[in-house]
Design a protein that fits this description.
This protein is of the alpha/beta class and 430 residues long. An eight-stranded parallel barrel has the order 3-4-5-6-7-8-9-10, surrounded by seven helices. A two-stranded antiparallel sheet has the order 1-2. Helix 4 runs parallel beside helix 15 and helix 16 packs antiparallel against helix 17.
Amino acid sequence: MTQISEARKGHTTSEVLQVSKDEGLEPEIIKAHIASGHIVIPCNTGRKHRRLCGIGKGLTTKVNANLGTSTDRIDATVEIEKAKVAVQAGADTVMDLSTGGDLRAIRKAISDASDVILGTVPIYDAAVSASRSKKGVVRMTPDDMFHAIESHCADGIDFITVHCGVTWDVVQTMKSQGRLTDIVSRGGSFLAGWMLFNEQENPLYEQYDRLLSIAKTYDVCLSLGDGLRPGSLADATDRAQIAELLKIGELQKRALEAEVQCMIEGPGHVPISEIEANVILQKKLCNGAPFYVLGPLVTDIAPGWDHIVCAIGGAIAAAAGADYLCYVTPSEHLALPTLEDVRAGVIATKIAAHAADIAKGIPTAIERDHAMARARHDLDWKKQMETSLDPSRFDRIRSSSRPQVEDVCTMCGEYCAIKGLRPLLRKDGD
């Protein structure tokens, strides 16, 4: 049983009912879009007690938070805390990208500690295992890769990033055209390196039916990774990126035929002027499948502030039709993020998602803004705090700078525009 197979039979799953309630849409609409591949509900059949969400056509824009250990920073307790912080800040999903420590134990601990949808990148696990065994990443076998995939699926992971579109000819396209930043995707780099060393095709592409069979067994959603995503503005929307996207479009169609849920990952570093075109291309070439974007980051020169760079690109991408935003933290390009970095990254991306939902015409989005406007008009500070995306920060800032008169703020004080004009507007009893 998969969400697609059930939708095509006309069955309404409990997951569909939950998404229907959360989004305020009829179950029949959700089912129709699942059947056509325009909506996914990542939900491994072996993992229970999670807070689900739908991703795709007509739904609110969702936000993902990446976390996980590195070889330099191995502390599972901290990563579990990051997952909790991310969810508290409003992340709809989290991904464990750990490469240091006991990867399976960390993965299971994060899964147990979190009630939201969980994603991973199994090729990291395979590469780390090969490196630790002294075999080396380039000497992984295809079975090593598929063993990691099946292990993650069996452990209850809801969606997995798989770089199936990094094929031999796509890598050759990148080599022949040249790039300023080559490949910045870690998974894409592992696979491209393996292919070039072994002079063989990508096993995830060559044995794609094997991958589909595993995913269907657990109803794991495939997130077709953009291994050739641009890592700089100079490489945005180049031939290598588009060549991979063409491959991914073919693979998405095959997944849909196999009744396997699938979404598409996108760039990357992209100038503002090219973001909408990237979204349109993905939707055209990938049959309207849900689009999951990292940023996009609209400039390369803001390390330490890349959560803001990401939010700018994310708002534009989602307004143009992207469905799912992966956050970026202030530590991007610099270090493993701290707890505060995770929180800042989620909040910035939630702002982008909400702004895009207003542009998309999602009714619940603008209703919240109208509620805030009414609270501001009434100088109702409690309601303003409750309506805000980040109530704790609202309260902290206001509490740190109390006005002499409680119903205004210290920006305007006694010259508050709303309060000062109110008696005159009501002078005639209006």
